[in-house]
Amino acid sequence: MSRQKPTKSSSKFGHLPKTEQFWANINIFEYAMKSPDNYHIELCMKLLEEKFSFGNGHGYTQKDLEQLSSYIEEHTGYYISLSTLKRVWKGTYKTQPQIATLNALVEVLGYKNWQDFKIQHQKAKLEEEKGSKRSKWPFYLAAPIVAIILTVIVFSFGESGASNVKIEGPVSFSADKTVAKGVPNTFIFEYDLSHVVADSFFIQQSWNAWRKEKIDPKKEVYASTYYESGFHRAKLIANDEVVATQAVHILSDGWEPHVYYSEADDIFIDFKGERFVADGRLHLPIELLKKRGLDTSRYFMSRISHSDDYGVSSNNFGFKTKIKVEKALESNCPWVNVLLITTEHVFSAKLVRNGCETGASYKLGEIYKSGKDNNLSKLGTDLYEWNDLEIKVEGKKATILLNGKEAYSENYQEDLGNIVGLSYVFEGTGSIDFVELTDEKGKVVFQDDFEVYE
């Protein structure tokens, strides 16, 4: 997808000829660079571009920012609009981005918040400053300026990085797994790109851009290994355009816990061969985390998932669970996000500690609400104690109940398909005491009370 040129209204210098427009924009950016936070903003952008392979290494595209917005929303509960991300990447914000925006951006990189990110990278910044005293422009300013100049050149002198994809006939894309359930699981992708003209081709395991692998368009088969169960939509990509998608459903072999320092990491800690169900609950105690090599001094999160063909429509179902967060981190605002994965998207309810309701959120059908611009005080609770959470849907009317009391209700329109996965994401670690999923008739299709009978 090609970048769009800014309209004249985007700058007070829009009436100038292109050459003068270019230098006027440079002056604007030089002024913006005087902010002490700009070094860290540019670094944050660079790390995100590297992590999510923006533009296949040739600059960002709108699709990259759209994917990043979706990723942040689904994995942190924060919503950052596409227009906000564009302003950040184009450097057109009049003041520094809001701290909530910066917090969300660095959280997907594995940092607690913006302040934590700045502190951890301050040493590198000082070293760069020390090594560049002989330069009129310090290196830590010169590099971003060069990047900005290149960006302005692109927008001032015409479009660049256009996808130039030509589809001259049918495109086929299919997949078959090598193992019935569980991970690791290799999928054999078969494709035919003989009717597609482009510079480069990729298979992306899911919507996450960092799960993208380059393929040879002259061949017809590519094998890719998945290390997490769940429902994914693999993408066949030409340049930066998706030319075909393929559903990939990996059934889990029971409950599957993973621990991450960051959701964007492609490396995680699993618990194969370990016992994490005991005393009537699923639990990842600190002792077990340390045994598996977790650095408990760092920020981390746990994701516990179960994926199956439950045969339950997301238009009519019942879900009940009992959960709590464990005191594994020195966190002022602990949280847990409970997600029901469907063939089209997710339902979710993010609970937070009392007083931290700006971090709460829910998604019911296509309706998403954040505590930043909605009153979600009813999703605030004492997470260090057991909480009963219920989500029930009757004819696309969804209701969230917390500890037996109705919290929020929404009528949605879109059909999100069948439920194919259950997922719990804890800040730090947590425990699950009970899970139950029922169909439209109230029949229990999945239940686990974590009692072990030997």
Give an account of the 3D structure:
It is a single chain. The protein has 454 residues and is of the alpha+beta class. The chain is 23% helix and 34% strand. The chain is built from eight helices and 26 strands. The protein has helices at 18-32, 38-51, 62-76, 82-90, 99-107, 114-130, 139-156, 286-291, and strands at residues 166-167, 172-177, 185-192, 196-197, 201-204, 212-214, 221-226, 230-238, 241-250, 256-260, 269-270, 277-278, 281-283, 301-313, 317-325, 335-342, 346-353, 361-364, 367-370, 380-381, 387-394, 397-402, 405-411, 418-427, 430-438, 444-448. The strands form five sheets. Strands 10, 11, 14, 16, 17, 18, 19, 20 and 24 form a nine-stranded mixed β-sheet that branches. A hairpin with a 7-residue loop joins strand 2 and strand 3 (185-192). Helix 1 runs antiparallel to helix 7. The longest helix has 18 residues, at 139-156. The N and C termini lie far apart (58 Å).
Range of strand content: 25-35%
Globular, elongated, flat, extended or rod-shaped: what is the shape?
Answer: globular
Write down the overall mean pLDDT: 81
Major sheet characteristics: 9 strands, mixed
Distance between the termini: 58 Å
Tally the helices: what do you get? 8
Nearest-angstrom radius of gyration?
Answer: 24 Å
Keywords for this entry:
454 residues, alpha+beta, eight-stranded antiparallel sheet, 26 strands, globular, disordered N terminus
